[in-house]
Amino acid sequence: MSAAVTEKTAPSLRTGAFGNARALACRECGNEVELGPSYACPDCFGPLEVAYDFPVVTREEIEAGPPNIWRYKALLPVPVDIEQSPNTEPGFTRLLRADNLARELGLEKLWVKDDSTNPTNSFKDRVVACALSAARELDAKVFACPSTGNLANAVAAAGARAGIRTVVFIPSDLEHPKQVNSAVYTDKLVAVDGNYDDVNRLASEIAGEEDGWAFVNVNVRPFYAEGSKTLGYEIAEQLGWRLPDQIVIPVASGSQLTKVDKAFQELIALGLVDDRPYRIFGAQATGCSPVSVAYKADTDAIRPVKPDTIAKSLAIGNPADGIYVLDICRRTGGAVEDITDDEVRDAIVLLARTEGIFTETAGGTTVGVLKKLVESGQLDTSLETVVINTGHGLKTLDAVSDRVGAAATIAPTYDAFVASGIL
Ligand SMILES: Cc1ncc(COP(=O)(O)O)c(C=O)c1O
Ligand SMILES: [Zn+2]
C-alpha cells in the first residue's frame, strides 16, 4: 500500500514528535514498528496501537496542566510543546452527579460524563486533536475522514483552526444539522451515496492512492484513537483519582470503549489510581448491533450488518474494534446490550427531563442501555456508575421533535391560560 502520508516523511520527524510514545505495536502479535503513518501490522495485518515508555508521571503534574486534554500530554502521542499549535482545546468536560436519573432508574450513585460540551459538541474533538498533532508532525497536506457525522464536524473545525486543508466524507443520508456543522467550517464536505462502511472503504482507497492525506481514522488511526483515553483519565481524576465501579459506553467502531479501558490500565500501572475491579458495558442500537449480537451469542465472530437505526452516529456495521470490545466487556464482568429506536427516543427525553442534559441519539442509546441493564439485573445498582454522553441533542433534533412540543397553544390572555388546563 502506498501510505497516504508518505513513508518518505518519516525519517525527518522532529525529536519528540510523538512525546513518550515508543513504537506502534500490533494488537494481535505484539510486533512493534516505527512510529509513522502505519496502521496495520506488516506481519499479520492486525491493527497497530501506540506503545509508550512512560516516565514517572504524578497527579500534581497533571493537575497543574491546562483545563483540557493536554493536561495528560505525557500520556499521549503528542510533543511536549503541543499547546503551542492551534487546536480546538477539547476536554476536561463536566462530570455531573445525576441523582434524579439515579432515583428514576433505582441506582445508588450515578454520574454523567457530559462530552456534549466539547468545541464541536461531541467527544470526537478529543481524538481529532491527537490526530491533528500526528498529521502536523507527519507533514500531511490534507486532513480528512470518513465519518458518521460528529467526526466530520470535529475534523472540519480543527482543520480550520490549524489552517490545514480539510476534506470530510459522510453518508448522504446523515442528519441535516451534522452536515451543516461540517459545511460551515469547510467547503469540502463530500456526501457519498452509501452507508458509513461504504464511505470508509472509499476513504481507505483514497488513502492508498493519494500522497499527503491524513485520514484521521484510517492511516493515522493509532494516534487518533489515543485521544479517547482522555475520557478515562478525566473520569478518574474527577472522581478524586479513583476508578468507577461500572461504566456504560456507546459502541460504533468500539475504539472509544477500548481506549477508556486502556486509560484505566495505564493509570493503575503508573500508580495514579488504586488497582481495583471495574466493569465496562457497551451500548448499541438494535438496528446496528453486531457487537451486542455476538456478545449475546457468546461468540467472537462479529457478523457485519447493514445499519437501520436513528442512532446514525453509532451506525457502523463492521466495527474495527468490535472483537476487543467483546474481550474487555467479558474480562471485566460487563456486557454489551442494545435497545430499539423507540427506547433511544424515550431515553433522550428521560435524560433531558431528569438532568437537564439534551443528548443526541448516541447518548440516548447509552442511557437507554443503562436502564435496560438495570432492569435485567446485569448492572449492580448498589455500585457507583458512570454513563458517558458523547454528543449534543441539537445535532439530532428530529429524533425527538415528534415526541415533544408545546403543551398548548393559547391566545395571549390570562383566561386562555387558565382555560388551557396547564395549571
Ligand atoms: C456521538 C458518538 N458517540 C459514540 C461514538 C462511537 O465511537 P467509537 O467509534 O469510538 O465506538 C460515535 C462515533 O462516531 C459518536 O459520534
Ligand atoms: Zn501482528
Automatic annotation (TrEMBL):
Coiled coil: none
Domain Tryptophan synthase beta chain-like PALP, first and last residues per copy: 90-391
MF terms in GO: L-serine ammonia-lyase activity; threonine deaminase activity; threonine synthase activity
One Pfam family it belongs to: PALP
Gene3D superfamilies per the UniProt record, alphabetical: 3.40.50.1100
Family: Belongs to the threonine synthase family.
Required cofactor(s): pyridoxal 5'-phosphate
Protein's name in the database: Threonine synthase
Organism: Nocardioides seonyuensis
Residues carrying N6-(pyridoxal phosphate)lysine: 124
CDD domains in the cross-refs: Thr-synth_1 (cd01563)
Keywords: Lyase, Pyridoxal phosphate
An annotated GO BP: L-serine catabolic process
EC number: 4.2.3.1
Keyword Transcription listed: no
